[in-house]
Every structure is written in structure tokens, then in C-alpha cells.
């Protein structure tokens, strides 16, 4: 008999060789019907994998990420199985599960092209194969046998993968029907659970991500255990298209891109700059209350700075290349991170324990090379500005500083109504301390500080072992937007690496020299990504205090343009941001165009309004709001803004 420990701490005994499915059946038939995979001592495995020793077990359903991952991993193999039947001679690259669905990189034989018009027949074939409820069979195989098998099938990419990446004794295959793939798993036990399938897109992808290698065809898809789930997902996709920040950003004239300026280099237009500056001002006000000092550092730095920090070793090969000056051996790099500059700020004069914690903040623009095919609007760019800050503190101050940063992040999230979010604590691999720097004592203290801070805040954070950075543990915040998509925004990281590399020190109260702990934090993450998420979360309907133009004044005809300008000057003088739409267009067209720009209020003015000194008020999405004096309308706007800004003073 072996002992199985469940997540709630309870223990049951089972016969050696019991499977996750049998354990689920022993609990309830309903659980057995819904479980997709299981975790055994932290490793996700198939439900039919025998358990031969005492173990901690988790049973994963569709609601769990691990369950979805196994489901979509098998769906990727199902896609490949369908393609194998539909396109004889096709070669396969890699086919993983991703955050929303799966993809497979394939190379059709010469003359075959897979395009959008083929999606329906691929889906049909996948459903046909799934309906056979084919078992997914795992097999351990030697390197020689794997090469022999995949060479016989003409799978050149699989053979290259075996030869270059896989070690003998660690190779497994998974077979369903007539399709066999190299794979580590995990999978669901059979294809019958896959009830609803949608092929979503097709794109090009270089083999191994290397632009010098051949371009393959990447086919994306998603699948569900129920058709209703797919229907709901497709509705969400349609809503996502409407909310696409690239589309709304163009309609609101917030930002642009220029091929001449360069790919992935956003240009903030006047309205977008207004938006960005208000975001910065909001965070500046909050940070000021928490004792941050702001700095400005250069956009470039000596190559030696990034060699010292380790960023050159990490980013150098795949980043923008060094800039050479006329002087021999003088090289600079575009700044990939703000933290090395902030280490130099700490080091520029002697520090005492009385100076700590030292909190240094910067809206610092950084540059990282991203492949052209991976660029996406503001969410994936080559130039972006981080709302960065670095806290230098003593080890005993880590927990309190964590609590303070969590307060800032909670304030930011509440201001923008990001009420649905998850947190993940990333800790060391308890079985492998070699890949981390710093003493066990310091790690134990810092990890416990993060765990205690989360408990103190009542934050039910998920703990992931082995996900810490090599320099320290971290806490990440995943936000769900208005249509249920997850985005990583705020992050807090503890770092023992950079202070050591830069030989930072402070004089402690016993007059000895000590190395400070460094905390990285960014509540927004980056202004670009945060703005993109905010646009899609609100569909461009920003809170009144933030929106670039609060009011559009629409004269009915040219005769009332002067009155509109007078109103605009008055409103500007009392802090209400206005624009005048004095185009020679009909009033209906002006209303439609300004609705498209998501301007919260429109004031229609004509002969009666000019004579009475009033404005006819329209509200975005709500239509006519009646007539008001300019003074009453200004008070209404300023009162609404004041009420909203209370949240920024939490």
C-alpha cells in the first residue's frame, strides 16, 4: 500500500500502481468524469500513469490551468493527426499547448498550401478522429529507435530535434490512432473528451525561431470539452476584435507606427501623450506619498555597465548591437533595463543603514529587440517606458517594503477597476539550490517575507516552486479584463544578484559593511502595455479624469463657431479639457465622429444656445442630457472628476 496526500492535507491509502483516474473514481464518479490530468509530487502526468510510491496528488479539471494545458496539448496532436491524413507527406515541427489553445508548426509537401479556406475541412477531420475516442498511449523509446522510426516516416525536423536536443533514456512518444509524436506530455487519456474545435488562424514561423532557417506554416486552434464553451469563446473573440487597442487607438488618434521610424517603435500622438502624462502624474502622486525619489537616466549606457549587470550576457546576442564611437574600444548600448543605472545612483556616495530603504523611481524608456513577427501593437514593442522603481533595503525591511508596494499596486488596480486578478509567488526549486545565488538563510527569509506579506494582505496567492528568478523570489499579478482575458501587469521582484555584482554596500549600525537587498517593482509594467490593456478593458471609454479630451463642442453651422471658441476658452480656464469641431459638416456627422473618438461629452450649440448662453449636452452612449448653463456644466464635469480622483488618494 502507498499513502496519497491530497491538497487539503488528508491522506488515503491505495494499492501500489494506482492511477490518478482510479483515485478520482474512489472519490466520486462525477469527479472521474471531469478530471483531465493529475499532479504527482508537483509534476503533471496522465491519469493512467501508475503511482508506485507515497505521493502528493492534485486532480486537475478544466477549470485548472494544468487541466487545460493537457487538453490543448492532446488537441495539438489531434490537429497533427488530421493534417497527416489530409496532406500526405507533410512534415511536423513543434506543436505545444499555449495560453489559449494550441498550435502546430508544419511543412506541407511542395505544392500544398494550407490557408484560411481549409480551416473547415481540418476541423471536420479533427472532429471525426476525436469521435473515435482514440487512447493516447505513452511509450519510452531509445534514441536509436526514435531516429529509426521518424526517419522511416520522412520526418526530417523530428530527426534533427532528436539528434540535437534529446538524450538517450529520456525520450518518450505518444501515439493516438495512426499518429505518433515525440513528446514529454502530459496528455489526456483519450481524444473523446474533445467535443468542440475551432482553427483560428494560420501564419508563418521560422523553424526553431531562426530567421535563417526555412519558414514553416503555423496553424493555431482552440478546443473545448463542450460546444457551449466554444460558442462563448467565439462571442468573446468578436468582442475582443471590437476592443482591439490597435483599432481603437487609431480611431481615438492616440498612437501611431511608422516604417521609416522603425518597427515596434510607437509614436504617441497629442491625445495619447495627454493620456500617458496623466497616467504618469497619477503614479507620481501615489509614489510621493510612499517616499520615492525620481531620477532620470540616459537612454544608453556603456557596454561595461551591462557586462557588470549581466544583461549583456543575457540580452547581448539577441538585442540591439553595441554602438561604436570614434574612440577605440568605446562601446555603448541602448538601455535594456533601468536597474543598472539605479545601482550606480545608489553607489555614487556612501550609504548608511539610516538611509535605507532608499526608493528610486523612473519612467525610463528601454529598448529590446523583438522579432518582427512577434511585434503586436503596444503589447509587444521594441521601445517602451517602464514605470520602474528600485528599493534598496536591509533584509529585515523586505517584508514591509513588499507590503507598501502591494498597497501601491492595489491602489492602481482599484483606480482602473481591475477587480479580478490573481497573484503568483515564484519560489526556488526546493530540490535544486545550485542555480540560485545567495545563501539559504537569505532566501528563506525573503521567501517567507513575501508569503507573510500576501497573508497579511489577505491575498490568496498561488505558490509556484522553481519559478523564481536566479537572483530572488518574486510576486506577479495577473489581471482579468472586462471580457475575461488574463494579462500580466504588476510585478515585484527581490534581487540579491545586482547588489553583489555592483558591490553595493552600506554601513550597518555595528559599523560593518553590508550588501543591501534590491526590490524591483513596476505597477503598470510598462506604459505601452498598460495603455493597451486599459484600452481593451474599457473599450476606449476612459474615466473622465484620464481621457485626453473631456468635451467636444459642436457648432451646428459656421455661424456659431465664434461662440464655440468662446465656450472652449471658458472651459479651459476652469480646468475642463475641450476641443471645438468646427468642420463644415452636418451635426449628425460630427456627433458620429466624436462618438467614435470616445469623447465623454458633446456640447451642441446653435442659435438658441448662443442667445441664452447655454449648451445642449450629449453624453457618450447615452444621448441627449438636456440644456445647461456653461457654469453648471463646468461644475458637473469638475465634480465628476473630483469624485473619480478620490480613488487615487487611497
From TrEMBL:
<dbReference type="InterPro" id="IPR012675">
    <property type="entry name" value="Beta-grasp_dom_sf"/>
</dbReference>
<dbReference type="GO" id="GO:0005524">
    <property type="term" value="F:ATP binding"/>
</dbReference>
<dbReference type="InterPro" id="IPR033728">
    <property type="entry name" value="ThrRS_core"/>
</dbReference>
<dbReference type="InterPro" id="IPR018163">
    <property type="entry name" value="Thr/Ala-tRNA-synth_IIc_edit"/>
</dbReference>
<feature type="binding site">
    <location>
        <position position="520"/>
    </location>
    <ligand>
        <name>Zn(2+)</name>
    </ligand>
</feature>
<dbReference type="InterPro" id="IPR006195">
    <property type="entry name" value="aa-tRNA-synth_II"/>
</dbReference>
<dbReference type="InterPro" id="IPR036621">
    <property type="entry name" value="Anticodon-bd_dom_sf"/>
</dbReference>
<dbReference type="GO" id="GO:0004829">
    <property type="term" value="F:threonine-tRNA ligase activity"/>
</dbReference>
<dbReference type="InterPro" id="IPR002320">
    <property type="entry name" value="Thr-tRNA-ligase_IIa"/>
</dbReference>
<comment type="subunit">
    <text>Homodimer.</text>
</comment>
<keyword id="KW-0479">Metal-binding</keyword>
<keyword id="KW-0862">Zinc</keyword>
<dbReference type="Pfam" id="PF07973">
    <property type="entry name" value="tRNA_SAD"/>
</dbReference>
<keyword id="KW-0547">Nucleotide-binding</keyword>
<keyword id="KW-0648">Protein biosynthesis</keyword>
<keyword id="KW-0436">Ligase</keyword>
<keyword id="KW-0820">tRNA-binding</keyword>
<feature type="domain" description="TGS">
    <location>
        <begin position="1"/>
        <end position="61"/>
    </location>
</feature>
<dbReference type="Pfam" id="PF03129">
    <property type="entry name" value="HGTP_anticodon"/>
</dbReference>
<keyword id="KW-0030">Aminoacyl-tRNA synthetase</keyword>
<keyword id="KW-0067">ATP-binding</keyword>
<feature type="binding site">
    <location>
        <position position="339"/>
    </location>
    <ligand>
        <name>Zn(2+)</name>
    </ligand>
</feature>
<dbReference type="GO" id="GO:0000049">
    <property type="term" value="F:tRNA binding"/>
</dbReference>
<dbReference type="InterPro" id="IPR047246">
    <property type="entry name" value="ThrRS_anticodon"/>
</dbReference>
<feature type="domain" description="Aminoacyl-transfer RNA synthetases class-II family profile">
    <location>
        <begin position="244"/>
        <end position="555"/>
    </location>
</feature>
<dbReference type="InterPro" id="IPR012947">
    <property type="entry name" value="tRNA_SAD"/>
</dbReference>
<protein>
    <recommendedName>
        <fullName>Threonine--tRNA ligase</fullName>
        <ecNumber>6.1.1.3</ecNumber>
    </recommendedName>
</protein>
<dbReference type="Pfam" id="PF00587">
    <property type="entry name" value="tRNA-synt_2b"/>
</dbReference>
<dbReference type="GO" id="GO:0005737">
    <property type="term" value="C:cytoplasm"/>
</dbReference>
<dbReference type="GO" id="GO:0006435">
    <property type="term" value="P:threonyl-tRNA aminoacylation"/>
</dbReference>
<dbReference type="InterPro" id="IPR004095">
    <property type="entry name" value="TGS"/>
</dbReference>
<dbReference type="InterPro" id="IPR002314">
    <property type="entry name" value="aa-tRNA-synt_IIb"/>
</dbReference>
<dbReference type="InterPro" id="IPR045864">
    <property type="entry name" value="aa-tRNA-synth_II/BPL/LPL"/>
</dbReference>
<dbReference type="InterPro" id="IPR004154">
    <property type="entry name" value="Anticodon-bd"/>
</dbReference>
<dbReference type="GO" id="GO:0046872">
    <property type="term" value="F:metal ion binding"/>
</dbReference>
<keyword id="KW-0963">Cytoplasm</keyword>
<dbReference type="InterPro" id="IPR012676">
    <property type="entry name" value="TGS-like"/>
</dbReference>
<keyword id="KW-0694">RNA-binding</keyword>
<comment type="similarity">
    <text>Belongs to the class-II aminoacyl-tRNA synthetase family.</text>
</comment>
<feature type="binding site">
    <location>
        <position position="390"/>
    </location>
    <ligand>
        <name>Zn(2+)</name>
    </ligand>
</feature>
<dbReference type="Pfam" id="PF02824">
    <property type="entry name" value="TGS"/>
</dbReference>
Amino acid at each position: 500500500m502507498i499513502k496519497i496526500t491530497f491538497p487539503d492535507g488528508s491522506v488515503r491509502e491505495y494499492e501500489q500502481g494506482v492511477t490518478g483516474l482510479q483515485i478520482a473514481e474512489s472519490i466520486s464518479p462525477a469527479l472521474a468524469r471531469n478530471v483531465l490530468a493529475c499532479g504527482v509530487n508537483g509534476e503533471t502526468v496522465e491519469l493512467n500513469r501508475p503511482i508506485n510510491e507515497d505521493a502528493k496528488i492534485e486532480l486537475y479539471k478544466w477549470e485548472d490551468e494544468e487541466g487545460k494545458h493537457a487538453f490543448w496539448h492532446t488537441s495539438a496532436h489531434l490537429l497533427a493527426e488530421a493534417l497527416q491524413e489530409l496532406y500526405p507527406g507533410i512534415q511536423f515541427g513543434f506543436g505545444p499547448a499555449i495560453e489559449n489553445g494550441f498550435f502546430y508548426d508544419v511543412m506541407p509537401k511542395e505544392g500544398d498550401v494550407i490557408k484560411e479556406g481549409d480551416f473547415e475541412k481540418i476541423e471536420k477531420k479533427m472532429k471525426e478522429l476525436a469521435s473515435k475516442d482514440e487512447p493516447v498511449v505513452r511509450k519510452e523509446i531509445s534514441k536509436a529507435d526514435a531516429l529509426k522510426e521518424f526517419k522511416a516516416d520522412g520526418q526530417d525536423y523530428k530527426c534533427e530535434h532528436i539528434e540535437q536536443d534529446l538524450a538517450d533514456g529520456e525520450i518518450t512518444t505518444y501515439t493516438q490512432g495512426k499518429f505518433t509524436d515525440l513528446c514529454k506530455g502530459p496528455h489526456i487519456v483519450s481524444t473523446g473528451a474533445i467535443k468542440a474545435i475551432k482553427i483560428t488562424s494560420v501564419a508563418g514561423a521560422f523553424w526553431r525561431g531562426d530567421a535563417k532557417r526555412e519558414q514553416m506554416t503555423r496553424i493555431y486552434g482552440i478546443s473545448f470539452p463542450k460546444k457551449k464553451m466554444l460558442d462563448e469563446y467565439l462571442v468573446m473573440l468578436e468582442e475582443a476584435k471590437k476592443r482591439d487597442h490597435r483599432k481603437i487607438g487609431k480611431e481615438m488618434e492616440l498612437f501611431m507606427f511608422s516604417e521609416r521610424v522603425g518597427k515596434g517603435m510607437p509614436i504617441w500622438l497629442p491625445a495619447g501623450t495627454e493620456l500617458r502624462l496623466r497616467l504618469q502624474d497619477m503614479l507620481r502622486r501615489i509614489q510621493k506619498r510612499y517616499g520615492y525619489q525620481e531620477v532620470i537616466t540616459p537612454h544608453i549606457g556603456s557596454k561595461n555597465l551591462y557586462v557588470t549587470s549581466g544583461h549583456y550576457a543575457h540580452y547581448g546576442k539577441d538585442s540591439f548591437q553595441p554602438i561604436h564611437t570614434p574612440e577605440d574600444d568605446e562601446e555603448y548600448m541602448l538601455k535594456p533595463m533601468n536597474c543598472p543605472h539605479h545601482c550606480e545612483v545608489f553607489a555614487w556616495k556612501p550609504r548608511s543603514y539610516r538611509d535605507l530603504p532608499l526608493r528610486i523611481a523612473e519612467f525610463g524608456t528601454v529598448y529590446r529587440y523583438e522579432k518582427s513577427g512577434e511585434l503586436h501593437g503596444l503589447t509587444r514593442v521594441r521601445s517602451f517606458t517602464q514605470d520602474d522603481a528600485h528599493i534598496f533595503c536591509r533584509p529585515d525591511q523586505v517584508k514591509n517594503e513588499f507590503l507598501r508596494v502591494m498597497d501601491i499596486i492595489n491602489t492602481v488596480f482599484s483606480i482602473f477597476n481591475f477587480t479580478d486578478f490573481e497573484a503568483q509567488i515564484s519560489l526556488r526549486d526546493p530540490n535544486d539550490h545550485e542555480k540560485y545565488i545567495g545563501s539559504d538563510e537569505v532566501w528563506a527569509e525573503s521567501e517567507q517575507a513575501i508569503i507573510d506579506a500576501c497573508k497579511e494582505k489577505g491575498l490568496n496567492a498561488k505558490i509556484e516552486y522553481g519559478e523564481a528568478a536566479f537572483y530572488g523570489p518574486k510576486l506577479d499579478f495577473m489581471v482579468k479584463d472586462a471580457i475575461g482575458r488574463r494579462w500580466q501587469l504588476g510585478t515585484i521582484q527581490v534581487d540579491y544578484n545586482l547588489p553583489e555584482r555592483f558591490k553595493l554596500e552600506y554601513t550597518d549600525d555595528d559599523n560593518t559593511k553590508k550588501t543591501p537587498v534590491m526590490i524591483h517593482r513596476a505597477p503598470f509594467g510598462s506604459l505601452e502595455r498598460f495603455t493597451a490593456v486599459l484600452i481593451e478593458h474599457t473599450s476606449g471609454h476612459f474615466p473622465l479624469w484620464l481621457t485626453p479630451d473631456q468635451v467636444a463642442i459642436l457648432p451646428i453651422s459656421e455661424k456659431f463657431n465664434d461662440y464655440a471658441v468662446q465656450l472652449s476658452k471658458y472651459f479651459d480656464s476652469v480646468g475642463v479639457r475641450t476641443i471645438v469641431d468646427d468642420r463644415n459638416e452636418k451635426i449628425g456627422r460630427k456627433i458620429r465622429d466624436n462618438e467614435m473618438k470616445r469623447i465623454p461629452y458633446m456640447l451642441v450649440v446653435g442659435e438658441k444656445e448662443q442667445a441664452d448662453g447655454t449648451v445642449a449636452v450629449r453624453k457618450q452612449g447615452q444621448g441627449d442630457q438636456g440644456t445647461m448653463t456653461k457654469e453648471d456644466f463646468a461644475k458637473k464635469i469638475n465634480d465628476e472628476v473630483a469624485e473619480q480622483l478620490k480613488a487615487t488618494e487611497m
